[in-house]
């Protein structure tokens, strides 16, 4: 007679097999058309350093992202296929080596044409509640949607501020929330040490808070000093969009993010520069 453990394992294997078949079917029949993928990729400077193998993997992840998530325009805002792919490709970057499971327990991405106003209810230490109106370029809800402003997404594409990317920022919040709270501590891999993560990130966070408190110029966006959750989201932006700055000013934070995201954008950038240099060399030899 089969034991309950055997039956459970058998059922798990069936579920995994069905999932794999579904993924294969999605990739075979709903893959992002190559011309659209190339056109969208060209727009996102953030993705230019990826190797061809990584770009192919990103295309598969972006396809699955578009299939499993609903990206909707708010208040009748119309989204083109190119806009959808630009969003999905950037959203897939943080999970390139983690997989789509890291974006589980939520479905919707809402896109506003521009910055949007939200009302937040705050409760002070005395228990008094107050309503505050904020204008935001992005927001991520616990187990709820990610909300983004297209104007800000586009701004990051066309005039990228060093280290600013609203898509990476909000999806980093989603990774942080995966264990049920936004506290700057996403679920770490078994090979990582929570104490080391906490020590490294809280030390860098405290330094930044001190700089802000003393009105010193900060090398990392001062918004990171708001809360540990914002610190993680902002350093994630730098990690992918401006790795040189993050590695220069917070090398230990950079190394922790290398371990968490299982990517090394700085090494990728150097590799790309080398191959560009080689290609230019070969072209000049040919001329
Ligand atoms: Zn944030």
Descriptive overview:
The chain has 287 residues and is of the alpha/beta class. The protein has a single domain, classed as Collagenase (Catalytic Domain) (3-Layer(aba) Sandwich). 55% of the residues lie in helices and 11% in strands. The chain contains 11 helices and 6 strands. The strands form 2 sheets. A 4-stranded mixed β-sheet has the order 1-2-6-5. Strands 3-4 form a two-stranded antiparallel sheet. A hairpin with a 5-residue loop joins strand 5 and strand 6 (146-149). Helix 3 packs across helix 4 and helix 8 (228-241) packs across helix 9 (243-249). The longest helix is centred in the N-terminal third of the chain and has 26 residues, at 4-29. It starts with a helix and ends with a helix. The mean pLDDT is 91. Residues 169, 173, 230, 233 line the site of zinc ion. The site of zinc ion has 4 residues, from helix 6 and helix 8.
Based on the model shown, name its key terms:
single chain; 287 residues; four-stranded mixed β-sheet; 11 helices; 6 strands; 55% helix
């Amino acid at each position: 007679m089969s034991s309950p453990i055997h039956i459970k394992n058998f059922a798990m294997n069936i579920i995994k097999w069905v999932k794999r078949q579904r993924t294969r079917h999605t990739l075979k029949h709903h893959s992002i058309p190559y011309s659209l993928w190339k056109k969208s990729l060209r727009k996102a400077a953030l993705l230019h350093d990826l190797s061809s193998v990584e770009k192919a993997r990103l295309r598969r992840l972006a396809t699955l992202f578009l299939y499993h998530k609903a990206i909707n325009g708010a208040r009748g805002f119309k989204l083109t296929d190119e806009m959808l792919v630009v969003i999905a490709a950037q959203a897939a970057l943080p999970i390139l080596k983690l997989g789509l499971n890291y974006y589980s327990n939520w479905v919707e991405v809402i896109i506003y044409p521009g910055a949007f106003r939200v009302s937040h209810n705050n409760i002070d230490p005395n228990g008094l509640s107050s309503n505050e109106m904020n204008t935001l370029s992005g927001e991520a809800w616990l187990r709820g949607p990610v909300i983004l402003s297209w104007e800000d997404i586009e701004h990051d594409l066309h005039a990228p501020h060093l280290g600013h990317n609203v898509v990476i920022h909000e999806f980093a919040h989603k990774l942080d929330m995966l264990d049920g709270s936004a506290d700057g501590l996403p679920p770490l891999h078994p090979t990582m040490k929570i104490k080391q993560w906490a020590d490294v990130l809280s030390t860098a966070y405290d330094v930044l808070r001190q700089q802000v408190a003393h009105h010193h110029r900060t090398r990392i966006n001062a918004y990171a000093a708001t809360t540990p959750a914002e610190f993680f989201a902002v350093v994630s932006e730098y990690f992918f969009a401006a790795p040189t700055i993050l590695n220069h000013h917070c090398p230990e934070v950079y190394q922790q993010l290398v371990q968490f995201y299982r990517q090394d954008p700085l090494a990728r950038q150097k590799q790309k520069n080398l191959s560009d240099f080689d290609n230019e060399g070969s072209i000049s030899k040919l001329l």
